[in-house]
Amino acid sequence: MAGVRRFPSLAVVSRLGWPALLFFFFMASPLVFVSGYTPDGHLFCTLYDLPKAYFIAATILLFCFFYTLYIYRKPERVQNLRFFLLNNSGVKILVLLWIFLAFSLFHAAVQAAAIYGLLNYLLLALFFIVLSQLFSRQDYRWSAIYGLIAALSVFSLLGIIQYYGYEIPFLLPILGPASTFGYRNPAAHFIAVALPFAFLALWRHWRLWRAQGKSTQLALFISFLLSAFGALVLLFMNYSRTAILALMIGSLALPFVWLISKKESAQGHDWSRKKLWRALAGVILILVVISALIMSFPKSRKRVEGSFNKFKQGGAASLLEFRYYHWGNSLMMIKDNPVWGVGLGNWRFSYPLYYKSFAKDPLFNYRMQVRKTHNDYLQLAAECGIPALLLFLFLWGRQFYLLRYSPAESDGEEDWRMPLTASLLAFSVIMFFSFPMQLAYSRMFCFFLLALGEARAWPALSS
User: What are the structural domain ranges in the chain?
Assistant: First the structure.
């Protein structure tokens, strides 16, 4: 009938809604927190991780609901999803991993903690499946990246303001510019794993500006340049040794990935050795830039110099500091529970039985409790057994294997292997020295990397 206003079709809602939802989720999730102040200005608590956990869990459920609607009227989408679930090796490894995590529940002293962790991993597995399907589309992939860069910009601005001593009323005055993460280490880790995607967007809009000459592309390029520079500076303001090491290792891999991509594009033609020299020059440039940034910030310089001095004086044990005791005692825990572990989320409850089994932990006393291993690989093996650790390593290592696939139709004009390599390596380093898988946001980011890696390689794998 004339004059009757019709609601937009499901296809229109899907086309407009997914980019907006992806952008909002990746922008908001690192910024969500509870300030901890009462209306009259008194401090009563600080909640930085738990609000992120609730926000991420609720939004993943929303993703699953909308994805069900998304595929409901399209039989080919249902067929694609079924084919992916039945034939993708990453999905199979993830299912096996979740089963081993579930079995650890029966060996947990505190089963409520194990159930909570198990539900988190179930939601993240669903998130992985949905994103793996959505990220086959370039526009959806870029919506997530632009949301991530928007969060990085706001996050870095707040952190830099903190660094220069200006009090932000809704942020706690914690030592180190922690911004919305509550402590400087996870704040710096966030930058190290997210920064490669900011540089990808930077390169994309530089290339588009050179090709089109549009002022809009130049404005976006300048905006992303400022965002990336601010985030890089904030990382060294945070003086986290793990984040600096993660950034360095991830960055040093980029010239070699670039070298491989140039060799592939030669397609049998003469491949000049100049490319190799350019890659080596890139390595030297990266080392010079990172060294200059370390020297520019006194706390970062002192931390790095202190690490070298500790290693000279006491070797690896002195360099690891309290991690030496956490790791050694965790190995004893693994020795006693090699197959099923002590239960997901139960390391902190079992540690009192092991805090002096290898060497007495000076951090463990009646005033202080050790809650995390500061090594996610060891913590997973201790909580869920060696088989669970091996499955996780297979799943994680698979992403490096998938990087061998050269850019295909799903990659568009950009080589997504560059940021994926840097971020995967950075995350691997952080997992070795810290506990990102015990924090809501970084745990979600891990599954984001898994989904992005599967999405870009899946067309090639399925052919």
Answer: 19-35+46-462
